[in-house]
Design a protein that fits this description.
The complex is a heterodimer.
Chain A: H1 7-16, H2 23-33, H3 39-48, H4 51-54, H5 59-62, E1 72-74, E2 81-88, E3 91-101, H6 103-108, H7 110-126, E4 131-141, H8 149-170, E5 174-181, E6 190-200, E7 218-224, H9 234-237, H10 245-251, H11 260-279, E8 285-288, H12 293-303, E9 308-312, H13 325-330, E10 336-342, H14 346-356, H15 359-362, E11 367-375, E12 379-384, E13 387-393, H16 394-398, H17 425-433, H18 442-445, E14 456-458, E15 466-468, E16 477-483, H19 486-491, H20 493-510, E17 514-523, H21 530-549, E18 562-568, E19 582-591, E20 608-612, H22 623-629, H23 641-656, E21 662-666, H24 670-680, E22 689-693, H25 703-708, E23 713-718, H26 723-733, E24 738-744, E25 748-753, E26 756-762, H27 763-773, H28 775-778
Parallel strand pairs in A: 4-5, 9-12, 17-18, 22-25
Antiparallel strand pairs in A: 1-2, 2-3, 3-6, 4-6, 7-10, 7-11, 8-10, 9-11, 12-13, 14-15, 15-16, 16-19, 17-19, 20-23, 20-24, 21-23, 22-24, 25-26
Helix pairs in contact in A: 1-2, 7-8, 8-11, 11-14, 17-22, 17-27, 20-21, 20-23
Chain B: E1 10-14, H1 21-30, E2 35-39, H2 44-47, E3 52-55, H3 76-85, E4 90-93, H4 95-102, E5 116-119, E6 130-138, E7 156-163, E8 167-170, H5 173-181, E9 185-190, E10 211-215, E11 221-224, H6 244-251, H7 256-259, H8 266-270
Parallel strand pairs in B: 1-2, 1-3, 3-4, 4-11
Antiparallel strand pairs in B: 5-8, 6-7, 6-9, 9-10, 10-11
Chain lengths: 780, 277
């Protein structure tokens, strides 16, 4: 291609390709290459420089996060984070975590979008050499009763279908998640997916060319589904606002096509290759294909260890003829991985995929195929039928790009209206429990296979966190929770970040596990909007502060590390409406003895209920105020880091010593909702009641605010005989528990205030709205 | 005739799309039964020497056509059919249950005919995949079914289901009566107190006659929708269930080794045990 002499003309040619380059980026590319790029090269850079792949706006802000620590084996940077969790059965074991968004695809085609979210995130964990032990999903949907309620409901159904259809068929249990509804998600749902894996430390595989490739020939092997044009342009689509209906129609083609069946076979065959490579001590590299397809995966593997690659696209198995080189090299076709292995080992790899597991037989043209070789030239070269379609230094592709963004303060919420009079608390509690945000999530999680693999200890709906015992015969337990409240995000982006971390940790501690590592997915509108970018920066600051100041129990003030994460910008519609700032945080916890893990279910009549955590009467974003007044209110709950950390550490210690009968976190809905949930967790055949007394009102000033404010805390059930010991232990740790009630025979929740019963409701009164009112909206 | 001692081992069949092979094998081992995972494309001749078979759960061939329909046509299923005729113990779990029905092995009244099917779940408010712990009642006569011979008569078992197509349906109304007469209905859905009912709280998928598990006329082949391998250890029982199993589980807090003890589903695997020696 002759180089145009006129720079403006060259830029114009590049912009005419409509690949999403800004004029500055077009200039930068021309300068870097020193010539006009081929279409394949331009496509490759448009993907690598997209917000989705490059983190060009967010990278410098993210540096504030604590990502390192004593046990961190691999922090953010590769496909998933890896953290050591201790020795079990004579081997050092690691937890692998990955957390991503699949928001845009799920809005456009909900079932396929959500399914490929699960499909992509499990590959990130598998390719570290780990076995995936679970997935989770954090879902944010539009208002089912709002003006776009019908669409919102369809998206709920589609997303849940996509998640179960993929995860269940793959044979990976769902360990939990959360669901929230808000008008700001009417045009942009959020689907955040998490995959969790386990791997022996000596079996971690890196996504890079091994150093041994300097001394012997290494092949590049592509395995999985034949490449097609599905998902072409996916990363670019995820890096801009969703357009009007016509363009949404076009975007459908940019959503990948999921295939859990093929993935299951790939997983089994790949596990066999990994085992063989370990057995024979063969140094290999392995990476999944995600955004940017072959181009991104192969160039990153080469660049990570200073090698080059020579790829021949004619060798890539394709599903359909006549795909241009830019499509073959950049398409995001699902269910593919890339290996780099020594040439002598190649026949073994091909045999396992193609003969032992018969990929070409069970899926048309799926297979393992050699598509190129590792070179020492440090150049990235791609050929198609004798023509060189890509040729440049490999670092050119992977070197970071950066975009400066302006920051403006998040608009303050409107002034707080006059406090309304206290509501009828029986009615208020029933309504809060039946609201979209507080009701039972059974209508979602019953579709998920929680049992496959046989490691379930505590499932969705049973407790604040899911618990598994992933190593049969060992006492190791792992607990997981994912959290983030969009109402807090709207009101205060800093506390939204800090509260997401604190709640995820609190949930993990409530089952008795020690918060060990975190991941975050940061979902916002356009980074080009200063207020939105400011909210993002505040969210990161909140997460960072909480991770540092709620340090890991048993460490010398070491932050709970954030080992992986993802930033999702452009979650806004063309009308300019952005999603509520949504930092969503997953916490993994470790239980030395899973037999000690706790649930919130009331256990024994006569036992005592303790409240840990003063009620500060912070009503901002609370369900009670929203239902009572329709107003958001102002001051959101704060995380008082000292208080919070001591409480979390106390819960872990009491649970580990077997001093608690049950434990439940207090967050959204407040302490009264938590109390009701402890009752509702029992099946109808074994109901217990509860009698509570409104305690010291303190800053809450009113009984209703005391009961419904969402200041963080715990409710704990303690056997009478252990009350003295528990109180003494807590006092020793600097926690002042408040004895707020007792568990009773019978089926009533009674709350007394100033001598009379402010609340008196039966189990069925509480359960009917909580378990069915909203579920009915999403079925049939 | 023994070959490599295979006649005292169980083959867990891995079809393309099966996904419970590993935990099923583990449950057999915990029950003292030696077991191998055998891929669908391995030698049918060698497979025929195994002393018993388990067809595990999953989504063989992606549930194309109907769940289990394609796997039932695989060559290795011929070895299972031959084993059924020889009286070997054969257990099909979930997708394995669907395969046994599609292969005509269960109910197996008219030899080789497909007389039943596993249809999409019927639940109030819609179909789709459904995963929950339920209760089963052992309704067959003692010793009627080889695989449940270690269960007590009328015993109630907590066990999880996880399927989208688990509703037994028949090609004719007379068949249900015949199955009852033949005592082939082995396990039915019931409540915590053993009361069989077609209420959706009890029968989770709308299965005809509340059937969860059916055997062939000879009693050596059991097609079972729920998953006993997910209830083979005490630790797997949800602590809040209304059953003595859950009481035992909660009582084991702080004594982790006790949680490795037998769960309600283990005896189905123990039933494969051969007299040692």
């Amino acid at each position: 291609m002759p180089a145009p002499t006129d720079v403006e003309q060259a830029v114009g040619l590049l912009l005419d390709l409509d690949l999403g380059f800004s004029p500055n980026e077009a200039m930068r590319l021309l300068k870097k290459l020193g010539r006009q790029p081929t279409l394949a090269e331009a496509t490759l850079f448009s993907i690598m420089w997209s917000e989705h792949c490059s983190y060009k706006s967010s990278r410098s802000t993210l540096k504030a996060l604590p990502t390192d620590g004593e046990h961190v084996v691999l922090g953010p940077g590769e496909d998933a984070g890896v953290v050591r969790i201790g020795e079990w059965g004579g081997r050092s074991w690691c937890l692998v975590m990955a957390h991503e968004s699949h928001n845009h695809p799920s809005q456009i085609v909900p079932a396929e979008g959500a399914a490929t979210g699960i499909g992509g995130i499990v590959r990130d964990v598998y390719c570290m050499g780990a076995d995936v032990v679970g997935v989770m999903d954090a879902l944010r949907f539009g208002n089912p009763d709002g003006e776009r309620g019908v669409a919102a409901r369809e998206i709920v159904t589609g997303v849940v279908d996509g998640i179960w259809q993929y995860g269940n068929a793959l044979g990976v249990p769902n360990l939990g998640g959360d669901v929230a509804f808000d008008d700001s998600f009417n045009e942009n749902c959020l689907v955040n997916v998490i995959a969790l894996g386990l791997v022996a430390e000596d079996a971690v595989v890196r996504s890079r060319v091994p150093g041994e490739a300097a001394a012997e020939p290494y092949d590049v092997i592509l395995v999985g589904k034949p490449t097609d044009s599905s998902g072409f342009g996916g990363a670019t689509m995820a890096s801009r606002a969703l357009e009007d209906d016509e363009e949404v129609e076009q975007d459908r083609g940019a959503v990948q096509v999921p295939d859990p069946f093929l993935k299951r076979m790939l997983t089994l065959a790949s596990a066999r290759v990994l085992a063989l490579a370990r057995e024979r001590e063969v140094p290999v590299g392995w990476k999944d294909l995600g955004a940017g397809g072959i181009a991104c995966a192969t160039s990153e593997m080469a660049a990570a260890s200073g090698f080059g690659m020579q790829i021949d696209l004619a060798l890539v198995p394709v599903a359909e003829g006549d795909l241009g080189p830019e499509v073959v090299v950049c398409s995001e076709t699902q269910e593919r991985y890339c290996w780099v292995v020594p040439r002598w080992f190649t026949p073994e790899v091909l045999k396992i995929y193609n003969d032992d597991f018969e990929l070409p037989h069970i899926y048309h043209n799926a297979r393992a195929a050699v598509i190129g070789k590792v070179t020492k030239s440090r150049r990235y070269q791609v050929d198609m039928e004798g023509e060189r379609v890509c040729d440049m230094p490999v670092e050119l592709i992977t070197e970071p790009v950066r975009e400066e963004r302006n920051i403006a303060p998040w608009p303050a919420p409107p002034a707080q209206p006059q406090l309304p009079p206290m509501a009828d608390l029986n009615v208020a509690l029933t309504e809060v429990l039946a609201s979209f945000d507080q009701c039972s999530r059974e209508f979602v999680y019953r579709h998920y296979d929680t049992e496959v693999k046989g490691c379930a200890v505590v499932r969705s709906g049973e407790a604040d966190a899911g618990v598994i015992a992933p190593l049969p015969g060992e006492s190791l337990g792992l607990a997981f929770s994912v959290d983030g409240n969009p109402r807090y995000g709207r009101l205060d982006p800093y506390w939204a970040g800090a509260l997401a971390v604190a709640e995820a940790m609190r949930n993990v501690a409530a089952v008795g596990a020690t918060p060990w590592s975190l991941t975050d997915c940061l979902n916002y509108g356009s980074p080009e909007d200063p207020e939105t970018f400011g909210a993002f920066a505040e969210g990161v600051r909140g997460i960072s502060d909480a991770a540092r100041r709620l340090w890991r129990k048993g460490s010398d003030r070491e932050p709970v590390p954030i080992i992986s994460g993802n930033v999702s910008f452009y979650n806004h519609s063309t009308s300019g409406k952005a999603v509520a700032p949504s930092p969503i945080v997953c916490c993994a916890g470790v239980l030395q003895d899973y037999s000690r893990c706790l649930t919130p279910r009331l256990k024994r009549a006569g036992s005592i209920i303790y409240l840990l955590g003063p009620r500060y009467g912070e009503m901002g974003g609370s369900e009670y105020m929203r239902i009572l007044t329709g107003v958001w209110w102002a001051a959101v709950p704060q995380v008082r880091f000292e208080e919070e950390r001591v409480r979390i550490h106390a819960a872990i210690e009491l649970a580990g010593d077997g001093l608690l009968l049950s434990c439940h976190d207090i967050s959204s809905g407040g302490m009264l909702v938590s109390a009701a949930e402890m009752m509702l967790a029992n099946d109808p055949g074994q109901v217990l009641g509860m009698e509570l007394e409104v305690g010291d009102l303190g800053a809450a000033t009113r009984a209703d605010l005391w009961l419904f404010c969402e200041s963080p805390g715990f409710l704990m059930e303690v056997d009478c005989a252990l009350a003295g010991e528990v109180e003494a232990r807590l006092a020793g740790m600097g926690v002042r528990p408040e004895r707020v009630g007792a568990v009773t025979h019978g089926d009533r929740l009674v709350v007394r205030h100033l001598g009379s019963a402010a609340i008196d409701l039966g189990y069925t009164d509480l359960k009917s709205g909580w378990s069915s009112a909203v579920a009915g909206a999403f079925v049939g | 005739m023994s070959r490599d001692g295979l006649d005292r081992r169980v083959a867990v069949l891995g079809f393309p799309g099966s996904n419970c092979e590993v935990e099923t094998q583990r449950a057999l081992l915990a029950a003292g039964v030696k077991a191998d995972i055998v891929r669908w494309n391995e030698s049918p001749d060698r497979l025929s020497h195994y002393g018993g078979f388990v067809l595990p759960g999953g989504f063989s061939y992606q549930d194309r056509v109907r769940a289990g329909a394609l796997a039932a046509k695989e060559t290795i299923v011929e070895a299972v059919t031959a084993g059924a005729e020889e009286g070997k113990p054969i257990l099909g779990i979930c997708n394995g249950c669907q395969i046994l029905v599609e292969a005509g092995l269960v109910p197996g009244i008219r030899e080789g005919d497909v007389e039943m099917a596993l249809a999409p779940n019927h639940r109030p408010g819609g179909a789709g995949y459904y995963c929950r712990w339920v209760f089963l009642k052992h309704v067959a006569s003692p010793g009627r079914c080889l695989l449940t011979r270690l269960l007590g008569q009328s015993e109630v078992l907590p066990i999880p289901i996880a399927h989208a197509e688990g509703r037994f349906v028949t090609s004719s109304n007379d068949l249900v009566a015949t199955l009852r007469e033949n005592d082939q209905v082995v396990l039915r859905y019931c409540d915590a107190h053993g009361r069989v009912s077609s209420s959706p709280d009890v029968n989770p998928n709308g299965s005809v006659d509340d059937i969860a598990g059916l055997c062939n006329p000879r009693g050596n082949v059991l097609a079972l929708m729920p998953h006993p391998e997910r209830a083979a250890w005490l630790r797997q029982v949800p602590e809040g269930m209304e059953t003595l199993w859950a009481t035992d589980r909660s009582g084991a807090a702080g004594r982790g080794q006790d949680l490795e003890n037998e769960g309600p589903g283990r005896r189905l695997f123990e039933a494969f045990g051969w007299e040692q020696g």
